[in-house]
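Reviewers asked in the last cycle whether our approach scales beyond single polypeptides. To address this, we selected a multi-component target totalling 992 residues and predicted its structure end to end. The input consisted of the following lines:
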Amino acid sequence: MSRARRLPRPLHPVAWWVWALGLAVAASRTTNPLLTGLVIAVAAVVVARRRPDAPWAAGFRMFLVLGLTVVAIRVVLRALLDGSADGHVLFTLPEVPLPEAAAGIRLGGPVTAEGLLAALYDGLRLAALIVCFGAASSLADPKRLLKHLPGALHELGVAATVAVAVAPQVVVSAGRVRRAHRLRGATVHRRHVLRALAFPVLEDALERSVALAAAMDARGYGRRAAVPASWRRATAVCTLAGLAGICVGTYGTLDATAPRALGLPVLAAGAALAAAGLLLAGRRVRRSIYRPEPWLAPEWGVAACGVLAAAVLVTSGATDALHPPLQPLTWPSLPPGPTVALLVAAAPGWIAPPPERTPAPADTAPATPAGRRAREVAAA
Amino acid sequence: MSAGAGAGPGTPARHGAAPRWRLVRLTPRRTAALALASAAGVAMFAWPLLLTPPEGFAHVTDAPFAFALILPLLVVVVAAELAEGGIDAKAVAMLGVCAAIGAALRPLGAGAAGIETVFFLLVLAGRVYGPGFGYVLGATTLFASALLTAGVGPWLPFQMAAAAWVGLGAGLLPPARGRAEVLLLAAYGALSALAYGFFMNLWFWPFTAGEGTQLSYVPGDAVLANLHRFVMFTIATSSLGWDLGRAITNVVAITVLGPGVLAALRRAARRASFDARTRFAPADA
Amino acid sequence: MTRARRRTAAAAARARAALVAVAVAALGVSPAVPGLPAPAPAAAATDGPCTDPDGVTVVVDFQQLGGGVHVRCAPPPVTSGFDALQRAGISYRTALTQPGFLCRIADRPEDDPCVTTSPADAYWSYWLAPRGGTWCYSNFGAGNRVPPPGTVEGWSFALDAAATSVPPPSVAPPPPLPGVPPTPLPARDCTTPTSSAPPPTTGPAAPDAGGAGAAGGGAAPAAPGTASGGGGPGPAPGTPGTTTAGATPAPATTTTAPTAPGGTGAPAAPGDSRARDAAAATVDLGETGDTGSPVAVAAGAGLVATLGAAALVAARARRRPAPGAGP
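The resulting structure, written as structure tokens, was:
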């Protein structure tokens, strides 16, 4: 077992997403800048150590920049448009009163330390959330993830797979059309260049879709298992009741005049019912997964780390340690429990098997269009 | 050929009108699911205007996170409902290819004054293939483009839901032909672009402005007051410019490319025989 | 190999030192660092009612929290209810997400997490009175009004109080200074017990409502379940500039208001005052609770920096070709 762990293999994508979502939930429970900074650092370490070499995994830096931008926007907006002048005034910006139509909003004015710190804390929390999602999308192969969608979404998953596979081909075909124009020596008037380029590409893509549909149909795609009518009715009832519960629960959460029980509990119950309906509906789809991803001990470990971080932060309640107060101005503290839980959440950087350093051998394109189409279907 | 979809998802409409296909039929069950999900979805987008915290509501800032968790489930459940009767291979292939074109078009305009090239194809395909297909196409296009550009984030379910509504609306437009159809679609394109921007801004407004600024939303305040602050925020962050850019892109693309794309899609539907009815007969000796 | 390791270790150490310096500099805005404009000096606060005719008297009654009644004077100029507390040397804390809502005075009640508004069964209520007058419930939050010089401000802790019987501070407002006529309160500041007019509920759009909006107990607490637009001790932004006078009867759609929010505070018996003084002696009004120390911040920043350095090292190691990889 340990030999299999040390061999490079991609981790199950759902394990990475569970870890990332757990970390995101943990980050959303606190405004302590030390803890949210720790979340960002943990995500960065795990991505740096276990990111595969594929091109889709190279976008983590963008998410870091995006998080930084969010923090900057928050702080600048707060400095320009602060609503109150209570507290330690750091400096005063020149005031620019806006016309009456803008409800008398005042630009500038005194900038307080409390205001800036509040904006910084909240912005860091949002940045941590964004970075967690960025980590998940840099670590988990999206195409592999599509294989693990619930059964009820099988057709849509296939459609998404087709979309992801065909989109680069659309771009290639556009290049081909332009080359054909040049080879023909046709001079296209500037007004018609868009049409001259767009329609051949569109026709090519639509033709490809018809051929793909024929190939899928020939391979027996789209058959549905026979289930009794009572099963289908049960599925319908579950799904519709779940959706109704979500609708009522949403409005109950938002409305103050509704009784307490009509808010979050109904929302949660509706969500559970809808998920149950989803799982029931998936029973009609019988499909076999080509080369399913194994779920071994490293997957359990990675998922457990994320769940642990979320559980520790959620059960810590709302305390001073998790929400450093701003009036009176207090130094943020480093609570031992959440800190250890977040440090444990960095363990996937060592638990997960190392990524494959060379591109997967299956990337060699087959020669014939039929073989390409077969692979598109098989990857679903 | 395929027993499940043997009934044929399309029926030519009344004589003289442009033929319409319904690749994903809207049964009463699916319509109910769509209606419920849309009602809940609107609340999840517009919660800054609707939220009035009750007594001791200690989770004012938890509502958006809870909604961000539930909305993906909502989109997924409705999509599964629409696919429940079985989408046949032709519809899946058409869906995949249209989503692929949309996803390939999306990076073209990114970052330049809000030029969003993904919506005009959504409107046109929704018009030709029906509201159910438009809904699913919107969700799939945004999902596929997020996968391709590694733009998966907490905003993705909201983008998927909003784009799905745009596609749904395009399918529900009244029948028309020729120039009137193109004008109708262009007008819808402009309106839907502005509505899309409005809803996405509304959802993202508390996250960008935070609390405590003069442009932040104040829980429990009057709807008009919060709306006023939201409008100021939209103008201040020049989101209005982006939305106008998106609307203009839609109108121009639909007017210039619309007739050709509509014809191409209809031709493809005819060639693929989306309205073919299969019939099993005993083999004659 | 050792040279590369030394280089990366040196880089990591440099990064760590830089990050710690930045963190200390950025977070050096604590009151302990000189040069930062401090809040109003507490040394000028005096015990007992104000002898200065322009000062604002602040009365704090801990009620069931156990801390007695304290009367202090805030010297002029006083710009808001919060400023009055600061100048009187009374430490308070506002809610994290509602910066205009007062949730603790002298760090009590300790079990209020102060993340958002206090629950309706345990919160600090805000009272106003002219000198020698009777207590009346304030319509505005402490951050939303300027106390007229010479008036009295009261804070009374309401524990399990029904909406119509919130207790005012248990001592009467101090009598006016000899020879100085008492400054009256503006009519709209108060919900007087004799008028049955409800206070303003859904406040109109206010430019500064975001920051100082949520009233710190300034709006009448509506009975649970009947609040429509922002009732309760929670956010009900009232603006000084608007004319939502408490005297005009509000439309029927607004929240039901307490008709008698507990009018005059009867003077207490002598025995009670001895017990009260004993209780008052146990509370230090200037107690701010634990303000933490920069050591934790430095430790946390160091941890973050270490992890960041590890990430950089791993990223740099990835760029070098892996030993034994294919041609």
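Chain C has two domains: 1-38, 40-289. We regard this as preliminary and will revisit it once experimental data from Aim 1 are available.
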